[in-house]
Structure formats: structure tokens, C-alpha cells
Amino acid sequence: MSFSLDVKEEIARQINSMRHCQMAEIATIISYCGSLIKTAEAKDALLISLERESLYRKCFTLLKKTYNISDVSIDGCEKNGRYEICIDDADIVWNIFKSIGIVDKTGTFIGFGKRVDPTLIKNFCCRRAFLKGTFMCIGSMSDPSKGYHLEMVCENEEQAHQIQEVLATFELEAKIICRKKYFVVYIKEGSAIVEFLGICEASVALMDFENQRIIKEMSNSINRQVNCETANIAKTVKAANRQVEDIILIQKVYGFEKLPDGLREMAQLRLDYPDATLQELGELLSPPMGKSGVNHRLRKLCEIAEELR
């Protein structure tokens, strides 16, 4: 099972005890996954098509708890890899529609795929329920060991902006892009995704994400350090090779005997220890010398070699 599905499974196991939060979550699920159909008897029915069995069970429970319809049959079945819930009691169906704000005051059916009624998510806790329902229905998350990416794919721009606005109330910045005919709300910052998991109360997934993030950041830090050290070594070797070439030229064309004592000693040491660092060369001099002094002498040798060239 992928990390994204693990998160959805963990969220799906949670059933909020507060009716207003239950209402917010079921309204969100119906908004994304619901449709109005006609039964064989030409009656209005609510069909909710879900991709996961765990979400199907949660939706089933929320419907019964929220609308107190335990005495009414709610048919459920698996069809083409999806799980469907169908309520064919027209009175209950229209009562649900009215309660979640997809029927206006005149009784006209507004339709699905719009914003969830703002009055249902005015409370802080209800906005949590909204985000839980949204992620379970249209969300996905990459494995933190591979990268940080959370997205929710909406059918229209109106839905996308509502998700973005709700996330902003939790001080989470999300962006929206258009991908083919869909609008995608996404977050790519690891710390923000951790915050999102906390909001959705997915504590197990949060800990797993944090562990993966720590391992990844430590690995990246080690890689940066190794790359930096490798680059420094390569730079030192290149400089030492150039110095040896300059000194050999001076030896052949000019001769060490014409060099001042300090430069002659420095030139011979570099030939004897071509891989030594500036600090190591300084410690071999008599008396010992610091890195800046060694560098100054090697630079003078370089200038002499350039004049000879």
C-alpha cells in the first residue's frame, strides 16, 4: 500500500462525535462523489461513488449517525472497482440536499461540484472535517522518501479556491495549477505537509513522514558535505599540479640556485611533497610558517614561471 493510501485509511477510521463536524464531512464527500439519479421506479435517489472500501464504510456510518436514518435502507455495493452507496427514499434524499446547501430556498436543486456550504465549515473543527473529507475523496500524497508533494484534484476552479482558502485559515499556503481540464491544489513544502497531516489528525502518518524527512535531510546534508570536500580536494590537487609544473619550468630554465633561500626551500618542498596541503608544507619549513606565508611564496614562484614563459 502506498503512503497516500495509508494516510486515507488512517483518516477513514476516524468518526467525529460532534454532529456539526459529521455534517461538514459528509457534505464534503457528497459534494465530490455524489450524484442525483433516477431509480427504476423513476424516484430520486442519491448515489455516492467511492474509490476505497474504508471510505465507503465511513460514509455509510456518517449518513446513519448524521441523519438518524437507521430505520431506512441504505444500499451499498461494489461496482467496477468502486464502492457505491444509494439512498432511494426521496424525502430523505431531499432532506440531505437541503441540509448540505445544494438546494436553494425555493427548493431548486443547485447541483454537485460546487463549493461546500460555507455555513457548514465556519467552525475551526468543521474545517478540519472538510479537509479530511477532501483529501480522502480527491487527494494524494507522494512517499516522503522520494519527495514532498500533496495535491487535491478538483473538477472546477471554484472548488480549488475553497480548498486554498480553508488551508489559509490554518496558515498553510497552497498553490493552484490547471492540469488538462482539472484544477490542482498543491503543497510541496515538507513542513507544510506535516502541518496538514496534523490538521487531519493522521498521527501515525505524521510520525512516519517526519522520520522519513529527518533521514532524507541527514542524507542530503552528508551528500552536500561530501560534495564540498570533494570539490575542495579537486581544487587543491589542481593547484598543486600547476605549482609543480611552474617549479619544474623554473628549475630547467632559470635554476634553483638563482632563487632566494626562502623560494628555493619552498620550491624543493613542493616537488618533494606534491600532494601536501599548504598547512602541511608550512609545518615542514624551518622555521614553520602559516598557510598565508606558504601561499605567498608559491604565488611568487608562479609569477617567476609566467615571466619565463
Brief summary of the model shown:
It is built from 11 helices and 8 strands.
Say how many strands there are.
8
Profile the largest sheet. 4 strands, antiparallel
Tell me the name of the CATH homologous superfamily of the largest domain. Answer: Homing endonucleases
Subunit organisation of the chains: single chain
Element-by-element helix/strand order: HHEEHEEHHEEHEEHHHHH
- CATH architecture tag of the largest domain: Roll
Principal-axis shape: rod-shaped
Using only C-alpha atoms, the radius of gyration works out to 35 Å
Question: What's the level 1 CATH class of the largest domain?
Answer: Alpha Beta
Mean pLDDT: 86
Structural class of the helix and strand makeup?
Answer: alpha+beta
Bin the helical content.
55-70%
Sheet-strand content, in percent, reads 5-15%
Strand order of the largest sheet: 1-2-4-3
Question: Could you explain the architecture of this structure?
Answer:
The chain has 2 domains: 199 residues, Endonuclease I-creI; 80 residues, no CATH class. It is rod-shaped, with a radius of gyration of 35 Å. Helix content is 57%, strand content 14%. Helix 7 runs antiparallel to helix 8, helix 8 packs across helix 9 and helix 8 crosses helix 11. The strands form 2 sheets. A 4-stranded antiparallel β-sheet has the order 1-2-4-3. Strands 5-6-8-7 form a 4-stranded antiparallel β-sheet. Strand 1 and strand 2 form a beta hairpin. By secondary structure, the protein is of the alpha+beta class. It has 11 helices and 8 strands.
